Amino acid sequence: MLRFLTRRTIGAAFILLIVAAVTFFLFFAVPADPARLACGKVCPPETLAQARHNLGLDQPIFVQFVEWLAGIFVGREYEGLGHCPAPCLGYSFVNREPVFETIIDRLPVTLSLTIGASVVFLIFGIGTGIVAALKQGKPLDKIASVSSLVGASVQIYFIGTLAMYFLVFQWQVIERPRYVPLTEDPIGWAYGLMLPWVVLAIIFTANYTRMTRSTMVEQLGEDYVRTARAKGMSGRTVVMRFALRGTLTPLATIFGIDLASLIGGAIITETTFSLQGIGRLSIQSVTNSDLPMLMATVLLAAAAIVVLNVIVDALYAVIDPRVRLS
Amino acid sequence: MTIPSETTAEPATVTASADSGGAPVGRSPGQLMWRRFRRDPTGMASAVIVLFFILVAIGAPLISMLYGKDPYTQYGQERPDLLNEFGYPLGANGGISSEFWFGIEPGLGRDVFMQLVYGIRTSLLIALVATIATTLIGIVIGIVAGYVGGRTDYFIGRVIDVLLSFPSTLFIIAFMPVLENLMVKPDEETPVWLRAASLIIFLTVFGWAALARLLRGNVLSLREREFVEAAKVTGASPARIVFKELLPNLWTPILIQSTLLLPALVTSEAALSFLGVGMIEPTPDWGRMFLRGTEVYTDDITYLMFPGIALLIFVIAFNLLGDSVRDAFDPKIRR
Q1: Domain residue ranges of chain A, discontinuous segments joined by +
Q2: Which 189-228 residues of chain A touch chain B by CB within 8 A?
Q3: What one-character-per-residue DSSP string does B13-61 give?
Q4: Which run of H or E residues covers position A289?
Q5: Higher confidence at residue B86 or residue A65?
Q6: Residues of B in contact with A25 (CB under 8 A)
Q7: Contact between chains at B297 and A15 (C-beta distance less than 8 A)
């Protein structure tokens, strides 16, 4: 296990390095000049040159990349702007603060969105999937499969907007989605994010229902399930302890992917519900040509994918004792 | 994953002898697949819907001629009786009338029905070209990685790792302006073809990796099978082995994957347009209708309903079609 984790972590770090390098060189090769942004509207040439020097933009691009990379581990000094402490992902010229602080500021919104929605769609998805598998061919199974088909085909910017229109503006059953920190007001937190959670869950549930159902059907036909039944175990124990365990492996895979894509920026969801999370931040940084901020959001999204990949692979061994990590 | 040749060959004898009743009739796997597909009502129904969408896309100019309107004319701007002073349709339900079947676009006052009909063209064309490109690249790289193996396989595997780790949507949103900066002078307008081409390229670049990985796995297991060994022993060239031995056994996963890829790319394109980096005015496009629809939804929800429902039907039909194609190819998988 330890060897597996070490090897995969090194691999993950390497992938992140490549993603960072590709993004850095592509975006910094752009005519947009961060120094001009930092300098303001009226910008005398001397001040511009000074700003460029302070930000290290007068150096060759490769040196810039190495400095940026070093900043993540040891922090960085910006002349005239101050110190940017250790995980320094650069300095935003639009917000006039280190990028990392803005990310930390916005991350709770995205995490709350992700975690809340995940809880809802995991419970509903797996629950419906189990029921559908046990009632194969019965009306309940048909309803589950039809609704999961529709759910999987729906677009968040469509039903999200519809939900906003009817629930928030027409019938006024719920307030506009907003973010209240969990530590401040747990009920307000859940209430403010309820609508996005449910809408996200409608879309994501479908996948889990389908996957749970098909794997569960397969598992129920396996020898070990038959053995468990033959030993006289109750139906509930067989389903929950044996068949469900075998169902979890493929579910872990898709959950890892979904979780990563949500943490990396639920761009469309946050745009639809006007929530100020990482997704919105990334879009804003594109509009503002805020390259350091954009770099950071790309890197965060890639990190979410890579790290969750490793976690999912390691989880396989925990869930399914037949899996050997090598 | 079971090996396709086995799954298609096995029921071949069963159906052939059961149906013909007397002398066994030889049928190719393709014919068998078609026979099974025809008996699947869901599959046929979804195929009809998909075909309908494609026909509408192809026949858009004809529909425009019969309907007497085009997607570009700003009817609302020309006639004062259609839009109010804020630019919203005066008629009920987004201005739906016998003249404007699906109402009028708020602001510019274009015909919604025509926008929708011509919008299918844009979305389908981009998705179709991207699907074909993605599939071709996926096939070539997947087969090369699986068949050549060794260092090539390792290298391709790592490239796929990196590509699958890229936050593609974010990257496309961020890189689209960059690309335009490089290709278009600041005082010029971005040509429509450039936007379409960039969309196709981006979707392809981030799309092929998954298919290539899947096919590589298939090739790895096929490579060890006797018929490939036999071909090698008889001195068949690598080209012959790839085209005559491997490829015929890979059509099933390829066809299934590309049927599922097309609707995914249609929605990706719509999502990118919704986020403002897709097709540009005045080209009709579903994603841009969504963008406009979400801007005005508090005052005119009708405008959002048409692309929303149309895309929903399209995606459902295509997903069902994909499932039916898979069932027809691989009757062992019964869901």
Answers
A1: 35-88, 102-319
A2: 213-214
A3: HHHHHHHHSSS-----HHHHHHHHHHT-HHHHHHHHHHHHHHHHHHTHH
A4: none
A5: A65
A6: none
A7: no
At B211, the amino acid letter reads L
Q: Smallest Cβ distance to B275: which of A149, A164, A267?
A: A267
Does A27 touch chain B if contact means CB atoms closer than 8 Å? yes
Q: DSSP letters along A50-102, please?
A: HHHHHTTTTS-HHHHHHHHHHHHHH-EEETTTEEE-SS---EETTTTEEHHHH
Best CA proximity match to B275, nearest among A325, A100, A269: A269
> Does the structure's ipTM exceed the value 0.95?
no
Chain B segment 21-50 residues within 8 A of A by beta carbon are none
What is the per-residue pLDDT for B10?
A: 42
Please name the CATH architecture into which domain B41-70+116-333 falls.
Orthogonal Bundle (1.10)
Correct CATH for A102-319 of 3.30.200.20, 1.10.3720.10, 2.40.40.20, 3.30.420.40: 1.10.3720.10
Q: Which residues of A touch B304 (CB under 8 A)?
A: 158, 161-162
Q: What is the pLDDT of residues A120-156, one digit of tens each?
A: 999 999 999 998 988 888 888 888 888 888 888 888 8
Residue of B nearest to A290 (CA): B174
| Residue A180 at interface with chain B, using a CB cutoff of 8 Å | no
CA distance A290 to chain B (A): 10
Mean pLDDT score of chain A: 83
- pLDDT of A83 > 80? The answer is no
Q: Where in chain B is the domain with CATH 1.10.3720.10?
A: 41-70+116-333
Is A19's CB within 8 Å of B308's CB? no
